[in-house]
Design a protein that fits this description.
Shape: elongated
Structural class: alpha/beta
Radius of gyration: 24 Å
Distance between the termini: 80 Å
Number of helices: 5
Order of helices and strands: EHEEEHEHEHHE
CATH architecture: 3-Layer(aba) Sandwich
CATH class: Alpha Beta
Strand order of the largest sheet: 5-2-1-6-7
Helix content: 25-40%
Largest sheet: 5 strands, parallel
Strand content: 15-25%
Number of strands: 7
C-alpha cells in the first residue's frame, strides 16, 4: 500500500495595518508652549511629528509675563503696559513665522498670545480648549538657577488637565 504524503497547511499571515493608519488614542489637539528658545523650537518639531501621526490640531501658545518693576517708596509696584503690548505684538509675529516655517500647512494649527504666569496660562488654555496633550520643552536648569527661577515645566506637569510630554534636549 502506497503512503500518501501529507503536507501541513500553512497558516495565513496576519494582515498588517498600513503605517498611515494609526489608532486615534483620543489625541485631537496638541498644545505647544513656545518661548522662542531653541529648546521650545525643538519641542515644536516633536509636536509637528505627533500631530501629523495622530492627525491632530496644533496650538502654539506664547505667554508674556507681566512686566512689574520694584516700587519706589511712594507708588507701589509699577507696571509698563507698553512693554507688554510690544512683547505681545512681536510674539504674535514670531508665532506666525513659526507656523509658516515649521508646520507649513501639514496639520491644522493656530497661535495665541496671553499675558500672565506661564504655567497658569498654559494649563488654563489647555482646559479651555480641551487639549489632549501638551508637548513642552525643559531648559534643564538645576541647582541655584532652578531655585531662583523655579520650573514652569514642573508646575505645568503637576497641574495639567491632560498628559504632558516633556522634551529635554542634550546639554552643550
Amino acid at each position: 500500500m502506497a503512503t500518501k504524503k501529507v503536507t501541513p497547511k500553512k497558516k495565513p499571515k496576519p494582515k498588517r495595518t498600513p503605517k498611515a493608519i494609526v489608532p486615534r488614542l483620543g489625541i485631537h489637539r496638541i498644545l505647544v508652549p513656545i518661548d522662542f528658545s531653541e529648546h521650545s523650537k525643538n519641542s515644536l518639531k516633536y509636536a509637528v511629528q505627533h500631530a501629523v501621526r495622530f492627525r491632530a490640531k496644533l496650538d502654539l501658545l506664547y505667554v508674556v509675563e507681566p512686566t512689574i518693576y520694584p516700587a519706589d517708596f511712594s507708588f507701589g509696584q509699577v507696571g509698563f503696559p507698553n512693554v507688554e503690548e510690544e512683547l505681545r505684538k512681536r510674539g504674535s509675529e514670531e508665532l506666525s513665522s513659526l507656523l509658516a516655517s515649521e508646520i507649513q500647512g501639514r496639520v491644522p494649527a493656530e497661535a495665541s498670545v496671553r499675558t500672565g504666569k506661564p504655567f497658569y496660562e498654559i494649563n488654563e488654555y489647555a482646559r479651555e480648549k480641551n487639549v489632549d496633550l501638551i508637548i513642552i520643552a525643559t531648559h534643564g536648569h538645576t541647582g541655584v538657577e532652578h531655585i531662583l527661577f523655579g520650573s514652569t515645566v514642573e508646575k505645568v506637569v503637576r497641574k495639567a488637565p491632560c498628559p504632558v510630554l516633556v522634551v529635554r534636549t542634550g546639554r552643550s
